[in-house]
Structures are given as C-alpha cells and as structure tokens.
Amino acid sequence: MKSSPRPVMCLRALALFTISVLTIPTALAQAIDFGAGREPVVLLTGPWRFNAGDDPGWAAADFDDSRWSLLAAGQSWSEQGYSGYGGVGWYRLRVDLPPNPTALALYLPYVDSSCQVFANGRLIGSIGSLPPAPRFIIQYNSLFSIPPGDIPVGRPLELAIRVWLNPAFAGSAAGGLVTLPQLGDAAFLDNWRKLQIHDRFWRSAAREADVGINLFTALAGIGLFLLRRREREYLWWGISQLFWAAFAGISLYASFYPTHYTTAIIASEVVDFLAYFLQFVFYIVFLHQRPTGLFWTAALATLGARMVDLGLNFGLLRTNGGPPLSSMLSVLAQGCVVGILVIGEHRRERDVAFLLIPNSVMLACDALQTLASLPQLYAQPWAGWMRGFLSRLVTWPFSLSAFQLVGDLEMLAVLVILVRRYARSRQDEERLESELEAARAVQKVLIPNEIPAIPGFSVETVYQPAAQVGGDFFQIIPLPAGGALIAIGDVSGKGMPAAMTVSLLVGTLRTLAHYTHSPGEILTSMNRRMLARSQGGFTTCLVLRLDNDRTLTLANAGHIAPYLDGREIEIENGLPLGLAESGEYRETMLALQDQNQLTLLTDGVVEARRPGGELLGFERTRALSTQRAREVAQAAQSFGQEDDITVLTLSVASAPIPA
C-alpha cells in the first residue's frame, strides 16, 4: 500500500519553521565585546590583605601575605577590627591584568593619613611622609602613574600601600584606605581626577561664596572707615571680616592643594578665634559699651573652644561619646553676645534689633546641635534628624548649613546697618555744614569790615577764625563827643548757637551805646539779656571807654585782661555773662601816655597748642603783646591754632586831642 504524502509534508514544514525560529535571534542579535565596551578602570574594593606593623620587605612583589587579615577598601581599619590602632599599617592586593595592558595609574581619592604606594615592589609615589620622619599632608585626588617597566606581561600586578596614622589621633581618626582606590588607564583616570576636582569645586561653593562675601564686606567696612575715621566700628568690622575670609580661605585651600595638617589646623583655629574676638569688639564699639563681664566671658569661652578643638585635632583630648566641650563653650560665647545685644536694645541703641534676631537664631542652632549630640539623646531619631537638618539646611544649588546661612544673614544685616549709619552721618554732616555756613554768614555781618577812625589813636585788628565757627566778637563804636566804646568777647560753644548768641550781644551792645557809655552798666545789661535768652552758655567780655583826654575806663566780665606795653593791667574781674543775675562789674580807670600800646585779645592766642600738647601760655602771650596785632595773630597761628584768634591793638598818638 502506498503511503500518503500529507504527513511527510507536515513534517517538512515543521522542520523548516523550527529552523527559521532558531536562526532569527542569531540574525538579529549584535555581538558585545565586554573588554572593548567597558571603561578601562576597576574599583579596587578588595578584599585587601592588611597587617598592622612595619617592615620594608612587605613591599616586595613576591612577599607571602597569605596570613594577613582581609579588609575592604572604602572603610577605615578602625571600623574593621583595628579600633584605636595608630601607627603603620600595610595593604596589599594582587590585580590580574589583561594580556596587553595600556599605561596604568592608581587613583586615591583620600587616605588617612600619610602613605607610600608600591607597584611590584617599587615606590611610585607618596602622600606626606612616614616614620622615622612622619609628616601628615592633607591631600585629595592623588594620581600615581605606574611606570611601563613595572607593568608585568602575563603576570599579576602586586600593589602595596604603606599607611601611617599618628598614634595620637587613633582615638578620633579613622585610618587607612577610607575611600575606594581605582586602577586603570592613565589617561582615563587623569580625566576622572579632573572631573572629581571640578565636582569638589562645586561642592565647596558655599565656602567659595564665604570667601568672596567676606572679602567684599571687609573692603566695604574699611572703605567706610577711611571716609569716616572717627567711627571705629567700621574698622573693627572690616578687620573681623578679613579674618573670616582668611578662615574660609584656609579650608578652601586645603580642599584643592596639598596642605601640612599641623599648619592648617593651627592657622585655622587662630584665625577663627581672632575673627570672633574682633567681632565681639565690633559689637562693643557699635553699641557704645565698655568691655564688661559678658564681653570677656565671650572672648574666654571662644578661646577655650578653640583650644579644645586643637586638643581634639591633635589627639590630646577625646570626646568620650558626648558633645565636645568646644560646642558647649560656643553656646556660652554666643549667649554672651546675645546678652550684649539685649543690653543695647534696652538702652534703645539704633538698629540693634537687626543684629539681635540672627544672633538669637544662631544661639538656638548652637544649643540644638549640642543637645542632639548628648550621649543620652544621640541615638534618638529626632536627634539624628536635627543634626542632619542643621548641617544641610540648604541642598540646592549647593549645600549650606544652618550656621552658614544664619552667619551670612547676620553679615548682611551688619552691612546694611553700617551703610545706613554712614548715610545718616552724612546727612547730619551736610546739615551741620549748612548751619556752619549760615553761622559764618552771620559772623561776617557782625565782625566790622572797616575800622572806624578814632582821632589821636591808631587801631589795628585781626580776626582769624578756626576751622569751625566760633564765638569771638569785637566792636568799635565811635562816640558823639569823641573817643569810642570798644568791646571784645568770646561766647562759649561753636556753630550756629554761638553765632546767634554773638548776634544777640552785639545788638544789645549797640542799643545800649545810645543810652549809656558806662562799661559797667553795659555789662550789667548784657548779663541780664544773656540770662533771659541763653541756654546754659556763658560769655566772657571786656568793655572799655576811651575818652579824648586819653582816659581809659574798663569793666571786665571774666575775659583775659588787656596788656599795656607788655604788662597785664590789674582790673576788677566779674563773672562771665549769663552765669548769675547778681553779677557786679566794677570799673577801673587809668590814663594813657604817649606811645602807649593797649593790646586786647581772646583765649585763642593763649590756648594755641603745639602737636605735642604744649600751650603758648600767658608768659609768651605777654611777651608778644608789645607787637602789632597781625604779628601776634601770626605767632599764635604758627604755634598751633585750635580756636578763633582775635587781636586788637590801640596805640596812642603823640599829643591828646582837645576836648
């Protein structure tokens, strides 16, 4: 019987379908070469062979390390069974290389602390130096090229890293390969190292901003001081900001350049203390306070905190699981600063509230940080959250702690306050300058421009005002019957109030001259007028009447006595005007002779002062009184003028004028 072809056809179709299904993946798939597709670098996580101790022979490529402990890289040796160990420890690792390795390099992000790196027994680089002359260098992102001659062909690469941790730091530092080493193509790792430095630059943006902002505010403070040298708070603020910029700069420098650990730590702590201390001084000067117990407590607590930090950094002190003493001292110092500001606020000092708010927030942050670090609370969830919150309050665009943010806000507040204070001071100066200009205008009107002629006498006057408008005045009023009334005086105070008092006195004198020519009566009336109008000031004044027969009648209200031919005239001396209602001004009479010279002057001559503090004094003034008015004034001005100088000389002609 002949078989049917249908089953055969079905089997053939099934076979073809099966073959086609099996061949489709082969046709569609792409071959991937693992060796060519991966990056030419490997993380050396280990485990590494480790041994505590030191022997130069442990660097040899053929050394048998099989009995050593196994430790993982990326963790310190203190976390892997060697807690509290300080000294030298060796790491060894065998790496199988590809058949034709390229130029290789070893990348170490960070090692705690100093190390030497060996490839097949040969030293290829180091960080710092190890015993017998140890030197700890802070260095990140280290790259060590492996010489081509040390790269074996067909054999594994033996890496050995000798690490030293100062035994004094064993209780507080970690020790060992705390980051993961990487081995690979030298060019690739060099680019990777540059990327890591770039990444560290951006992660350090907060410190970089601190350097720039602190320098800017320092220059602003010093610039304001140069414009207003009498206001020292600008200088103290500027110098403190310079130290804050230096403090941030030290930390920033150590992040990118090899830095000696001891130098960096000591410099950082010293600069930190000086920055704080100068800031305390700024608060005292700004608030017009004296250094009290709060100031000295803050300064000593800050010094103590820095000393404790030095002890911790050099392994001389240990925290014993609790918050460092420096944290508690910082809380004390910040509390004293808040106390100083509260006293300023109580005294209603301007702008204190702008400083009190950020400093109070800083005190709260310090207290919370210390509280969350107490051993009894450290493991609590809220304490961990609080520490993280305070250390990373802002995470974008760069990380910023609460302490940095509050410090920046305080710095901004101080800058705004100082600029506002400068603006107010400038406005006050402009207002004062306007008043002084008006006072000068008043004074020019009251000081005679032309000296009236007095028959039989020669009169010479000099008025030399000081930088500020003072209160000197003099008047020469001719009398109808011949002779003249002469007055010279000095009003206490400066500026517009003094000029207005001079205006009052000169107007009173000129009015009284119409009713009486008696010097005593004139001074008595002027005293009453002063008492009615003055606001606590006083005026010295000398009034004399010169008659045609050369008779001189004088009355004095506390003014410098006149000189006659170099001799002081003895006259009755009453109280200055404006002090007592019962002031009595007796008159003194004397007769002038041919060629006599009478010299009247104000205390600007006697009180002329040299830079060293020496006064011209009465003896030199008496000797000068025989000279002409201009020579007396020039001598006093050359000696050192500090006040208005007014000199009036009256010389007698050869013969008297007939009555």
List the defining traits of the structure above.
Rhopdopsin 7-helix transmembrane proteins; Jelly Rolls; six-stranded antiparallel sheet; Phosphatase 2c, domain 1; alpha+beta; 659 residues; disordered N terminus; six-stranded mixed sheet; 3 domains
Q: The CATH topology of the largest domain, please?
A: Rhopdopsin 7-helix transmembrane proteins
Largest beta sheet: what is the strand line-up? 3-2-4-10-6-7
- Strand percent estimate: 15-25%
Q: What is the count of DSSP helices, taking H or I runs of 4+ residues?
A: 16
| Distance separating the two termini | 188 Å
Mind telling me the CATH class of the largest domain? Mainly Alpha
Q: Describe the largest sheet.
A: 6 strands, antiparallel
Regarding quaternary structure, how should these chains be classified?
A: single chain
Number of strands: 23
CATH architecture of the largest domain: Up-down Bundle
Helix content: 40-55%
Based on Cα principal axes, name the global outline: rod-shaped
Class based on secondary structure composition and strand pairing: alpha+beta
What does this 3D model show about the protein?
The chain has 3 domains: 41-199, Jelly Rolls, CATH 2.60.120.260; 204-424, Rhopdopsin 7-helix transmembrane proteins (Up-down Bundle); 451-652, Phosphatase 2c, domain 1. Helices cover 45% and strands 18% of the residues. It is built from 16 helices and 23 strands. The chain has helices spanning 5-28, 34-37, 186-203, 205-227, 233-256, 261-286, 293-313, 325-346, 352-372, 381-391, 402-446, 495-512, 519-533, 603-606, 617-624, 629-640; strands spanning 41-43, 48-52, 69-71, 87-95, 104-108, 114-119, 122-127, 137-138, 142-146, 157-165, 182-185, 259-260, 457-464, 472-478, 484-491, 539-546, 551-557, 563-564, 567-568, 573-574, 587-591, 597-601, 645-652. Strand 16 and strand 17 form a beta hairpin. The radius of gyration is 46 Å and the shape is rod-shaped.
